[in-house]
Amino acid sequence: MQIYNTMTRKKEELVPLVPGQISMYVCGPTVYNFFHIGNARPFVVFDTFRRYLEYQGYKVHFIQNFTDIDDKLIRRAKEENTTVPELAERYIKEYYTDADALGVERATNNPRATEHIPQIIALVQTLIDKGHAYPTGDGDVYFSVRSFEDYGKLSGQAIEDLESGARIEPGEKKRDPLDFALWKGAKPGEPAWETPWGMGRPGWHIECSAMSMELLGPTFDIHAGGQDLVFPHHENEIAQSEAATGKPFARYWMHNGYINVNNQKMSKSLGNFLLVRDISKEFDLEAVRLFLLSAQYRNPVNFSRELVEQSAAGLARIRTARQRLKEAAVAPAPTEADAEFIRDISTHRAAFNAAMDDDLNTADAIGCLFDYARAVNTFVSEPRGKEALDKAAELFDSMTGVLGILQHEEATEFPKEALALLAERIEARKAKNWAKADEIRDALTAMGFAVEDSKDGAKLKKL
RNA sequence: GGCACCAUAGCCAAGCGGUAAGGCAGAGGUCUGCAAAACCUUCAUCCCCGGUUCGAUUCCGGGUGGUGCCUCCA
Fold this sequence. Notes:
Elements: E1 2-5, E2 10-13, E3 21-26, H1 37-55, E4 59-64, H2 71-79, H3 84-101, H4 117-129, E5 133-135, E6 141-143, H5 159-165, E7 180-185, E8 200-202, H6 204-216, E9 220-226, H7 230-245, E10 250-256, E11 259-261, E12 264-265, H8 276-279, H9 285-292, E13 301-303, H10 305-326, H11 336-357, H12 362-379, H13 386-403, H14 416-430, H15 434-447, E14 449-454, E15 457-462
Parallel strand pairs: 3-4, 3-9, 9-10, 11-13
Antiparallel strand pairs: 1-2, 5-6, 6-7, 7-8, 11-12, 14-15
Helix pairs in contact: 1-13, 2-3, 4-6, 6-7, 9-10, 10-12, 11-12, 11-13, 12-13, 14-15
The chain binds one RNA strand of 74 nucleotides through helix 1, helix 5, helix 7, strand 12 and helix 10.
């Protein structure tokens, strides 16, 4: 499989450190609020990546952290008159609600920063001991950027170019404007932990280094996140980690593109972000997932209601095809057509795999799914042998399983009144009372159900 | 200013040297009492100008237009 490595800026063959296993770390949410659609993209994209690796037989050690201590949490907790741990606990719970609805599988591990304080302190201490970091005396500890020769290798920035943008905030005691905080001295009323250099709390960048190294070791396969984390977050992680261990940190870096709203980046400062929780009130989040996967992950996507509706229509098509396959009439004996279809199945599978192998080209892979759905729809228009139907279903479920769609059983329960009306309509149709049949269909439509007639009866479908 | 990215039909979106996947929407048809679903047919020479090549949407150069990072952010 080829993946695009941000570090080398080209597609590379994915060769894991340990054959058959992949260790990967994805930057997770800061849990001070519900997450927004921009946060959702890496969750969905890298979940899909993980699903594909597992489908290909890899054992994947998939880590996604929760940042549960930082300025935003402290501020928000104060606003809501609660504590930081309570706030974090609440939004971690809410994270799972939305992530589950998006079809995001649980990570192997969801480490929290506050549960790795000893490891963070030890890492900071190592950096101080090695001369890569310095305490200021009032609780802060900074990383000395100029002490790490390779600084800028991920983002392709020369140190001199970065310098112009950097500055020292009032009250900071940095030796160099480029230096960044590993540890922040405690202010009154804030959560704080005891350290050799005073009471305080971890900086953002160091958390990810400490947790990834703790759970995956000094060198691991893949580190992933949004494009906006390339600089400074991931650049800083590399500097800290490699300065501390003397070993290479992540071997491959993957970064997803942004979600735009009205062709503009969604961001905290612009205040134009859309919460997944709010979107879920209007749309099936599986449609949102399909929408997020409808473009290759490195390209930007523009979010709009209309586009999600397009994805919802496409998702319905996939669902219908799967349903038809499930309800397909079984022929008593296999035929030549069955044998031919079984041969076609491997062609479809190969096309799907090839798309996914090419840097997770989900747009192409979804195209393969639609191609396959059409083939299935045609195939099941007549009774077919059981073996062919089973094999068809197996591939179908593989594809939708990798993409993480059709994971929730469609609600098949209909209210009694609707079912009674449907029965009444079947009688009316038998009696060729078309006027009454149409009247009942209209009534059902008004209740929110579509009627689909077929040779052997009629079905209800939620609108 | 430095570093990147993008430009394909009404809307999305693959392809990236041999004359354009797929979906949504639209049109026509098959099926149906009528519908729906499904199936069939139909719907683009790929921003502009040069160059390389037998051949370029695909490579190179130059434009034009848009976006991002360099500051918290997925």
